[in-house]
Amino acid sequence: MPIEIEKKYRLTRAQREQVLQRLPAIGARLRAEEFEENTLYSGENLEVSRSVLRLRRVGKGAILTYKERLPMKRSAAKHQREDETRVDDPEAMDAILDALGYTPALVYEKRRQLWRLSKAEIVIDELPFGLFMEIEASEADIKMIERKLAVKDLKVENATYPQLTLKHGKHYESIIEARFNDEE
Asked: Among 13, 23, 52, 165, which is least packed by CB within 10 angstroms?
């Protein structure tokens, strides 16, 4: 069972700019910039506070992911089970999930930059409700990257994007959405 260790930070615009300037300076390399549409499903045995089934559409493909939060350690970094697979036909996958009794419950859009520094993945995310950075690595590497970035007053964000979507999204019948305005 793959275990993901990550730490998330809520960024101000100024902090985001600092991070984007510091990443190349500390040796990080930009791997991709992408737009994502994330759909989380509800159904038997899924609890948004503990586990999620997500279909992340990027370009013409998608990634199906199951995540389950592991019991909390005394750390700001999250530890969770994460299983995922690439999907060539997102609409067919959505139809399969529907046939199995899973229905879309949350949708959130995201603009993401993916950076790599050694074994660590650093992402800079923009969502309709804020700016964020996530560092996915060992806890020791996360601390090392925090030191190298040297950004003052980084605020740890413990809420997940689904939890933030529940809080900030718009309700449409049986679904909650956080989407960018068309003018953006």
From this structure: 13
